[in-house]
Amino acid sequence: MTDRTGHVGARRVPAWAALAVAVTIGLLTALQARVNGQLGAGLGDGFVAAVISFGSGLVILVVLSVALPAGRRGFAALATGIRGRSIPWWMLAGGVAGALTVATQGVAVALIGVSLFTVGVVAGQTVCGLVLDRVGYGPAGVVAVTLPRLAGGALALSAVAVAITAGGVDVPWWMLALPFLAGTGIAWQQATNGRLRQRVGTPLTATLVNFIGGTAVLVVAALIDVAAVGPPTTFPTEPWLYTGGAIGVVYIFLSAAIVRHTGVLLLGLGVVVGQLLTSVVLDLLWPAPAGPGLGRQLVMVALALLSVVVAAAPWRRARGARRPG
């Protein structure tokens, strides 16, 4: 069986399964945001926390890439593609967006909470996902931006409006701008990773490339930050605060594997559901000083769930129509 990109053995993932994976990615993203946010607060430095998170993930991926045959084959395909210029430089830049996301988590989440951080990310993912699908940037090619998909995106954006217009959110404007930029980067990263995965044949190598680039960017940023304000004076002792890298490995791997079955926008909307559902639980367990109240959180979750229902139903019919009769 050959897919649209010419890869032999590719199988169509059912719509419900693809959406379940997307929601799981969102759950892991929200969990990582809380872990990295708490680590940044404990260190008093979000950039150093981001380096620890990305650096630990990179170590895990290097070990897996060496130990697993798929990792070795993928790295060989990567090296061949770079030498032969069949893999352009921009396919290797997904880690920059990942670095922005992790750094933003370390700086903002401890103050504004996971829910408010997530709705900022939602806005960026929704807007960028619509654009990338329309121009055919993702591995699924051009995905029609139909009225239901636009409505789903609008409902997701309305969750952001609930967070920032209902009052009670007393944070600097850039605290919301950073998550928006991170969400834009995440949508671009998912599409880019999906295309790189097609070239190298395995999500493992695409994820490794992300962590190499992201770690390099974050090390430079952390060195500048430490030179300006000094290094952290204490390091938290709770082991769970150092699991952010491992969590990132899992969800970036899943994103690279599933985006060709969903398109960029639908993946983003599924991720939103997982993020918001998880963020409500996390913020109830660890309330943030400037986080939204439970009532607003529940409204945001309801709007996000509705956005996925609206956007996904026509997508399932369109996928089914492509199957040979």
TrEMBL record:
The chain crosses the membrane at residues 12-35, 47-68, 89-108, 114-132, 144-165, 171-188, 208-228, 240-259, 266-286, 298-315. The keyword Ion transport does not apply. Keywords: Membrane, Transmembrane, Transmembrane helix. One of its GO terms (cellular component) is plasma membrane. The keyword Endoplasmic reticulum does not apply. This is Inner membrane protein YdcZ.
